[in-house]
Write a structure and sequence with these properties.
Bound molecules: coenzyme A
Strand order of the largest sheet: 1-2-3-4-5-7-6
Distance between the termini: 26 Å
Number of helices: 5
Mean pLDDT: 95
Shape: globular
Oligomer: single chain
Helix content: 25-40%
CATH architecture: 3-Layer(aba) Sandwich
CATH topology: Aminopeptidase
Length: 144
């Protein structure tokens, strides 16, 4: 699986993938976000993104294509994004999810009260507007 940064020319493909998975996509073209495309045999199999800056970054937009779920790609994408965040100095990753809390818990993320998120995270568009208040908030300390 090859990982490449999503440039402006691939933003529409990213939006389509997120829309199909019912994930927020309205703000992907705004500054301060970085998205990655994962491909195999020339076709995209997953996307994932990071938002903000170290030490606390938002992990977002993790989606594996319908046809390739359940093969371990999600785990691989998560690991790649964590390494990418750590290489930028991130100490913690934060996320909101509605349907995949179990997936993230199995990968070392812990559920916390949304009110405990640091300001850099609670001020993101996802926290303020895009994700419904019913979404679970999870976070992970990297490198422990
Ligand atoms: C969540 C998602 C990324 C997982 O990708 P995947 O490639 O199917 O995951 P993997 O094959 O690597 O599965 C890893 C483990 O997580 C489990 N898992 C996968 N999706 C899960 C979910 N939604 N809830 C709970 N556990 C889940 C798998 O059963 C597997 O467990 P195992 O190792 O004990 O067999 C994928 O289902 C997806 O794209 N969902 C829609 C978008 C989404 O909700 N993204 C998260 C919010 S940003």
């Amino acid at each position: 699986m090859q990982m490449t940064k999503v440039g402006d020319n691939a933003l529409d493909q990213l939006r389509d993938a997120l829309r199909q998975a019912a994930l927020p996509c309205d703000d992907v073209g705004e500054p301060g976000r970085q998205f990655y495309r994962f491909e195999a045999d020339g076709k995209w199999v997953a996307f994932g993104g990071l938002e903000g800056a170290a030490p606390d970054m938002l992990l977002r937009s993790v989606v594996v294509s319908d046809a390739r779920r359940g093969e371990g790609l999600g785990n691989a994408v998560l690991l790649a994004l964590e390494q990418c965040a750590a290489s930028q100095g991130a100490l913690r990753l934060h996320l909101l999810t509605q349907g995949a809390a179990g997936f993230f818990s199995a990968n070392g993320y812990e559920r916390f009260d949304r009110q405990t998120a640091p300001a850099a995270i609670s001020q993101t568009v996802q926290f303020k507007q895009l994700c419904p208040a019913s979404a679970s908030y999870l976070r992970k300390t990297l490198g422990v």
